[in-house]
Amino acid sequence: MRSTRAVEASADSADRYIEGFTVGRADRLRSHCVDAIRGLGYRAWDRRSHIVITGGPFRPPGATLGFTTIAREARRVGEDAWPGLVADIVGQLIESALAAPPHLDREELRRQIFPRFSAPGRIPEARLAEDYSYARWVGDMPLLLAVRHSQASAFIADIHLSKAGGAEAAWEAAEANLFEAGLGELTVYASPSGANVLVCESEHPRQAAWLAYPGRLMDVLGLEIGPRGVLFCAPAHRILGIHVLGPRATVEDAQSVLNLAAILGEDEIAPLTQELFWWRPGHPVLPVSPEGVIEGISAFDTIDG
């Protein structure tokens, strides 16, 4: 009886390694972390204050997984949601750890790095601030830096930036790589309302990142943007749609861009967003609704006199 009561008391006492958790809850959280790591094909060793990951590219003494981000997010949900939550975060953290493979030296990393969006809400804002403080926001989407790894994209975390020469140098290299690669295949789609949407489609996930450089994109395409600006859709990382707003633009025209985005993104392996974006020279890229953009255009027309 004493032994049982001692165990129960111990399980309800504060965990010495994960702040704000009892020993019992902390043990269950650590167990989910171990399961998530092993589910990805790696070996996991619970050291109480952290987990050691070995196997694959993680050679002895292995990589270290801390609990700061995982514990913070776990506090916000019930325990029944922990398995899925932990699996997502562990997958992202391991993906980040693989983003700058050891076999890439500084010059190789700089040649391969490119800008890539993260889908809205995919990475919690707290983790963005903690692990990707260099991120740039375009509309409501964070633009990060990435490399291709084993036919997938892996985001580069703050800890990897020094290998690319620092944040500024990494951005310069990524942008240069994006511009040098150019655009993918161009196709014009005509909507029932008569609006023409130019779609840039590539097999590389950097394509949608051109949304962050609208002025440069218009120069490359040779498009002249009038005072009403241009609409964008980015249904997938490899697809970017463009519609230049003319003097007779309607809500139906704007809606047709969203309709096309829904069609193009339906079967995509790496979808991005079903939002509509607006831009014109001198203004930032903004997420908009079809009605809002037409109403907003009228306001801009009045302001510009």
Question: What are the defining features of this structure?
Answer:
alpha+beta, elongated, 305 residues, disordered C terminus, 23% strand, YcaO domain-containing protein, 10 helices, four-stranded antiparallel β-sheet, 3 domains, six-stranded antiparallel β-sheet, single chain
Describe this structure in words.
By secondary structure, the chain is an alpha+beta fold. The chain has three domains: 1-97, no CATH class; 102-180, no CATH class; 185-304, no CATH class. It is built from ten helices and 13 strands. It has helices at 2-12, 23-39, 68-74, 82-97, 106-112, 125-131, 167-181, 214-221, 251-265, 290-304, and strands at 43-46, 51-55, 58-65, 114-117, 136-138, 141-149, 152-155, 185-190, 196-201, 230-236, 239-244, 276-279, 286-288. It has a six-stranded antiparallel beta sheet. Strands 4, 5, 6 and 7 form a four-stranded antiparallel beta sheet that branches. Strand 6 and strand 7 (152-155) form a beta hairpin. Helix 2 packs across helix 4 (82-97) and helix 3 runs antiparallel to helix 4. It is elongated, with a radius of gyration of 23 Å. It starts with a helix and ends with a helix. The model is unreliable at 1-9 and 298-305 (pLDDT under 50).
